[in-house]
Amino acid sequence: MKASDALFSFARTTALKKAGKHALDPVPQLPDGQKITLGDPDADRYYAGFATRDITPKNYKTHPYWMAGYNIAKRITGFLDPLTANAMWIGCGDGEGIVLISCDLIGLTGYEIKELRDNLMPFCRKSGCRHVTVSCTHTHAGVDTMGYWGVLPKSGKDRAYMKKLKETLRELCEEAWRSRCPGSLYYGSTEAPELLHRWREPSFTKAVLHRFRFVPDDGGKETWILNFPAHPNTMGGKNRMLSADYPCYMRREINRRQETNVMYAVSAIGATDIGEVADDDTERTILGGMLLGQKACSIGNERLLTPAVTVISQPFVMPLDNFVLSLANSLGVFNARACAADSETKSGFISEVTYLSIGGVQILTMPGEMFPELVWAGGYESAETSATGEGPEVNPTPLGEIFGDENLLIFGVTNDMAGYAVAPNDFVLDTRMPYFNRGTDRFGRSHYHETNSCGINTGRVIADACKRIKRILSEP
User: Fold this and answer.
1) What SS3 state is found at 204?
2) Cα three-residue angle 240-270-246, rounded to 5 degrees
3) For the whole model, what pTM was predicted?
4) Does an H or E element contain 469, and which?
5) I need a surface site. Which of 157, 212, 213, 268 has the fewest CB within 10 A?
6) What SS3 string covers 426-448?
7) What are phi and psi of 223, to 5 degrees?
8) Where are the extended beta strands (E) located within 345-431?
9) How many CB atoms lie within 10 A of CB 217?
């Protein structure tokens, strides 16, 4: 038996044995989410505040930190640009509000998010904060905050860094709330197909750059929320320098033109990268970010948003068919809110989708990296062209169709990190060593993303959670 075969057999057997502890447990029946509505008929202003902090580990030269993304056990050895965390308070009038957080990190699990929210309970009671959402820009040149990329089977997460990170995020929420002031909120968008590259079939993309722009009444610094579906992995697999990737240079370009607070959330980034604007990885990172910043500054189709915010956070059980991830969870490589599930491993974890409506603009937060065809109609392959030979009827309803919104925004890698969500008729595993080796479809094309997916049903359970949210929205 080959060494790789023996390792596969051991990993799969061990994972199923460890996950078997959930076999007799009932699958949790999670409640419907609660609809939170902010806004007063008499309120004519948004209140917003912003705070930012550098979260780059200062001791990376003397202390081992592992680079998140690509290969394991790749120690960080250099620095290109800082990692930052940003927080924005949004309220309708000077009362209750929500906080949006964005971090230049690969991702945080729902377990980590729950810890953060629990620590924020005193702040929420004091401030009237009704919900906290945490997005990660998913830079592949940042610190391992998931645990996957260390010296396995040890977790790659640094405990001191994670503790400091959570304290920093708590402080940012306080600062954003205290800095709130009245102003107007605008929304606009622009297409940027030249800045998006999809490297896997189907070729479907939706290359739209979205912008929320808060303008304070006192003429102070504006705060923007930007959203675009490009994977921040531009620095490449050989890189060992800390970097926020292209979002850093997007923010710098905007601030070169106008001093601005900038929040960023990636959209549906499955198999989509920044456009091929340069051959060298570092040059492409810098130039791609600059061009995206220029695009953000050029948006001219804005509309004024009425002060109104709706939030519905819907928990659901994510089945974990991927025995490699199941084993990693059981060994403590990463932390998840583990539970029994209808999956091959009999295990899963509790995740969430959150619906946000800000001034009528609809946003869904996703616990991982969505493929765009799962979100917007028109992207599913036919039986003749799909990887599996199956038609689009085996796929879930696109999320935009569920909400009747072809311009639905996605904040990816938010409130949890669940890997890739791939359309079922495009989902191909290696027949001999599934989730271990890349699969090859009937056209001879390699399928990498499935190895970093929870399983074929990821998109389906997310769509089901969204249908529950839609029902709640329809209730009086």
Assistant:
1) coil
2) 40
3) 0.96
4) helix 458-474
5) 213
6) HCCCCCCCCCCCCEECCCCCEEC
7) -125, 125
8) 347-358, 361-365, 369-370, 409-411, 420-421
9) 10
**In the 8-state DSSP scheme, what is residue 69?**
S
Over residues 9-37, the pLDDT tens digits come to 766 777 666 665 655 578 999 999 999 99
Alpha carbon 170 to chain centroid, angstroms: 20
Q: CA distances (Å), 356 to each of 110, 116, 326, 353, 409, in order?
A: 18, 20, 31, 10, 10
Q: Return all residues near 432 (Cβ < 8 A) that are at least 6 apart.
A: none
202: preceding bond cis by omega (within 30 degrees): yes
DSSP class of residue 18 equals H
Amino acid, res. 142? G
CA separation for the pair 41, 357 (Å, rounded) = 16
Element (H, E) at 136: strand 129-136
* Spatial CA neighbour of 167 closest among 106, 129, 119: 119
* Per-residue model confidence (pLDDT) at position 40: 76
Counting every residue written for the chain, the total comes to 476
Query: Which has the closest alpha carbon to 291: 190, 427, 195?
Result: 195
* Sign of the dihedral defined by the CA atoms of residues 163, 169, 173, 175, in that order: positive
Residue with tokens 């928990």: 315
Distances (CA, A) of 237 to 61, 68, 435: 20, 10, 20
Q: pLDDT tens-digit profile of 240-259?
A: 999 999 999 999 999 999 99
Distance, CA of 182 to CA of 149 (rounded, Å): 43
Considering Cα of 339, then 116, then 452, then 210, what sign does the dihedral take?
positive
- Pairing of the two strands 208-216 and 181-191: antiparallel
Tokens of 346: 């009999």
Residue 1's pLDDT is 46
First to last CA, the chain: 63
Q: Are 319 and 457 in contact (CB under 8 A)?
A: yes
pLDDT at 58: 94
Residues 196, 181: Cα–Cα separation, whole Å: 36
Which 8-state DSSP code applies to residue 137? -
Sequence letter at residue 270: G
Among the listed residues 318, 357, 309, the one whose alpha carbon sits nearest the alpha carbon of residue 338:
318
Structure tokens at 20: 């078997």
Q: Are 242 and 142 in contact (CB under 8 A)?
A: yes
DSSP assignment string, 305-369: PPS-EEEEEEEEEEE---HHHHHHHHTTSS---EEE-SSTTSEEEEEEEEEEEETTEEEEE-SSE
As beta bridge partners, residue 35 has 312
Record the tokens describing residue 199, joined without a space.
């490297």
Phi-psi region of 368 (alpha: psi -120 to 50; beta: other; left: phi over 0): left
